[in-house]
Every structure is written in C-alpha cells, then in structure tokens.
Amino acid sequence: MFYETAENRHGLAHDPFKAIVSPRPIGWIGTLSKDGVRNLAPYSFFNAISDRPKLVMFSSSGWKDSVENVKQTGVFTASFVGRAIIDAMNASSAPVGPDVDEFVLAGLTPEPGRLVNAPFVAEALAALECRATDILQPKGIDGAPSENFMVIAEVVGIHIRDEAIRDGRFDMGFARPVGRLGYMDYADAGDVFELMRPGAAR
Q: 53, 158 in Cβ contact below 8 A?
C-alpha cells in the first residue's frame, strides 16, 4: 500500500505513522514548578540527538506542565524507564492538574538533582540531569507550526545504579529498557544481541 500523508487516507483502523517510527525511548521527564510542585510525565517523543555535547530532546503535544516548568526553571531530569517500573510510569501519565505531584500519585521516590533543581525517579536504574538550550515549535513544509513543542537540553549529569553496571557497561539485558510502539503497544529490550559494524573494533 501507499498513501500521501497530506490526505492521510490509509484506510486502516488507526494511523500507522507512530507504529512505523518505533520503538521510541520514553523520556520520563521530572520538573519542579516555580511554586515548588514536583511534576513527572512520560514522553514517547524523546531521544538523544548529539553526543558532543550530550544533547537530548523531548516533544510535548501541546504546551503542558513539563514545558511550562522548563521555561520557568531552565532544567529537567529524564529518568530511565525499565520493565520493572513500567506500571509506575503508566500511573504518572494520568491527566491531572498542575498542583498534583505525580511522584506521590505513582508511589515513587523523588530524588533531587545534584546539578539541577529538578527531581528524578530514585527507583530508576539511570537518570539524566539536563539544562535546556532551546524550546521551539517545529514547522511543516508549508511553514505552519506543529502542535508540538520541542525542548532541547544538554545533559550535565548522569546517575546510574550500581546493580545496572556489568562488565563496564550499562547492562541492557538487566535494565530491559521500555520502548513505545504504535497504538497502546510497548516493548522491552529483553532479547539483546550485539551487532558490530563492518571494520568496527570490539
């Protein structure tokens, strides 16, 4: 099959776009409001975009609490979502008001950042402390703005739990990172294999 996205006449029960662009890592974004209220929300439009410097981005469908808090404070954390805490991640996605602390809602332990004034999930096997560099609204080819707001940030600190480090690596088989697929489907990287690029050294 083929269809043009301008008309989006795919004839399927659900739009397959996000199912094709998958799996997508989940950015579990922790922020603190200007009034000191903790916020925790998962974003499946999340990824690393540079290694030097270490940059990540998350993209919010609409101007949500996470984006507002980053605009006010300039910082956030991104906690690693592993299979063991997927239910807590899901609980933190509930549509609640800005006065609700999702750490409490999901039964999680907030840990304050060392370099940024934002909390991360203590139960997570890893977390990134981030300072925002840009908040922008991407545009389509017609110049019209997307409904999404993209936050780009530099990672200034990294937390890793000791039990997740094996043989000098963050152990993917143990950590079992969760990825968002299409629709309401998720997957974890329980079946890990190594694939070397041609000419790459081990």
A: no
**Single-letter code of the amino acid located at 155:** V
**Cis before 112 (ω within 30):** no
d(CA 20, CA 162): 35
3-state secondary structure (DSSP) of residue 90: helix
How far apart are the two ends of the chain, measured CA to CA in Å?
41
pLDDT digits (tens, 9 = 90+) for 36-93: 999 999 999 999 999 999 999 999 999 999 999 999 999 999 999 999 999 999 999 9
Q: With beta carbons less than 8 A apart as the criterion, state whether 39 and 30 touch.
A: yes
Measure the CA–CA gap between 184 and 168, rounded to whole angstroms. Answer: 34
pLDDT for residue 202: 64
Q: Is 20 helix (H, G, I), strand (E, B) or coil?
A: helix
* pTM of this prediction exceeds 0.90: yes
Residues 148/162, Cβ–Cβ less than 8 Å = no
Separation of alpha carbons 57 and 73, rounded Å: 16
CA distance linking residue 40 with residue 81, whole number of Å: 12
For residues 158 and 127, what is the distance between their CA atoms, to the nearest angstrom?
A: 6
